Amino acid sequence: MQKDSFDRVISFLLGASWGIILFGALALFAILFHFGFTIAFLLTFLYIIVSLFLVLVLDALHVNKERLKEAKKQTELLQKILENK
Predict the structure, then answer these.
(1) Residues 6+ apart with CB under 8 A from 15
(2) Are 28 and 58 in contact (CB under 8 A)?
(3) Domain residue extents for the chain
(4) Nearest 5 degrees, angle CA 48-CA 50-CA 56?
(5) What are phi and psi of 2, to 5 degrees?
(6) For residues 2-41, b (16+ Cβ closer than 10 Å) or e, as one string?
(7) 3, CA 20 to 30 Å: which among 30, 51, 61, 62?
(8) Residue 85 has pLDDT above 60, yes or no
(9) Percent above pLDDT 70 for the chain
(10) How far does the chain reach from its first CA to its final CA, in angstroms?
């Protein structure tokens, strides 16, 4: 199955965002650890929550694109059925 450019971009962004979340959380925690464990943990947790929300937005874009594609297929089939009657 061939992917169009939109799917490729979304897949790339999803993969890159997971990498940014992991390495960013580790780097943020390491930088903020000098200010105390609690502050570092809370800010890293906040960073992860915001980043995961952005991943959900990207995934929602992908799901809506698939839903639109399926709706177009169903509309085409329904039009063929209507023409045959």
Answers:
(1) none
(2) no
(3) 5-84
(4) 100
(5) -85, 140
(6) eeeeeeeebeebeeebeeebeeebeebbeebeeeeeeebe
(7) 51
(8) yes
(9) 98
(10) 33
